[in-house]
Amino acid sequence: MENKNDWSVFRVRIDVHAPREAVYAAWTTRTGMESWFLRECIFYDAGGADKEADSLATNGETYSFRWFGYPDEVVETGTILEANGTDRFGFSFGQAGNCTVLLETVRDLVLVTLEQTAIPDDDQGRMHWHVGCKTGWTFYLANLKSLLEGGIDLRNRDERLQNMLNS
């Protein structure tokens, strides 16, 4: 039996009842990213200076990400590949490939689609980045929805608890 799954890409989607501008800012500002996704998010301007917490990330800038449940030495760095200011945001995601977020307004909600591409198609890529990242993004998109719709942050912030779905 032939395996027809494309391990180099996946998509996850969720509906969020919030203004598109708020959803976009949640992805493209330090304040936004730290509210639902990261322990620390720093966007750097073209000159390498830290951007203000509520300043939108733009094309060509860089970032560093740190998560709850991981030591400071675990940091993801990359480049903003696309940021149109309204409904598209893309960034490199280390060896795991590239991520693009599309926001589509439908009636009174925003459909959030995250696509991760250029995932290596080998055993590590399939399990660690395809399955692992898809699992992580599924939780974090649910947390984005929870926070923007109800104000509840579902992340584990207790550093003593390791290997948690929500950190």
In short:
The protein is 26% helix and 29% strand. It has 167 residues and is α+β, with helices and mostly antiparallel strands. The model has no long low-confidence stretch (mean pLDDT 95).
Task: Explain what this protein looks like in three dimensions.
- The chain is an alpha+beta fold and 167 residues long.
- The chain has one domain: START domain (Alpha-D-Glucose-1,6-Bisphosphate, Chain A, domain 4, 2-Layer Sandwich), CATH 3.30.530.
- The chain has helices at 20-28, 30-36, 123-150, and strands at 10-16, 40-44, 62-66, 76-83, 88-92, 98-106, 109-117.
- Strands 1-7-6-5-4-3-2 form a seven-stranded antiparallel beta sheet.
- β6 (98-106) and β7 form a beta hairpin.
- α1 packs across α2.
- The longest helix has 28 residues, at 123-150.
- Belongs to the AHA1 family.
- Residues 18-149 form the Activator of Hsp90 ATPase homologue 1/2-like C-terminal domain.
- It comes from Flavihumibacter petaseus NBRC 106054.
- This is Activator of Hsp90 ATPase homologue 1/2-like C-terminal domain-containing protein.
